[in-house]
Predict the 3D structure of the following.
Amino acid sequence: MLKGIDPRLNAEVLYTLAAMGHGDTLIISDTNFPADSIARQTVVGDLLRIGNVTAGEAVEAVLSVFPLDTFVDDFAGRMEIVGEPDTIPPVQEEVQAAIDAAEGSHRPIVSVERFAFYDMAKDAYAVIQTGERRFYGCFMLRKGVIPPEA
């Protein structure tokens, strides 16, 4: 354990989050996502896991140390429900709430068509698989910057 670090963040995840640079993307996936095969195509090349937590809990933990890129509209993305791109299921509402809490304001997550999401994930820096069993619990987070102290 480390003081001040969310205990849901393991060493591999912390190392990866720290190694990422501005604009790099992170995928948070549910258990049904083809996480291992897609993770092999990412920069890291191995699947990371934060097990036994929901997607919302994993995003909350990640955002405790990870700045979002607020300079772009696609700072966060969600996988669209097939045939229902405007429907936002509870799992996606929970992640939106975690983002709102971390950022201190509401900025909607962008919607990404399912197969476009798979392609985007292949180009990501890393994939973290969660214990989320609800469908469409897959998200992209784009890393931002931490400004210098005033």
User: Anything to note?
Assistant: The chain has a mean pLDDT of 96. The CA atoms of residues 79 and 136 lie 6 Å apart.
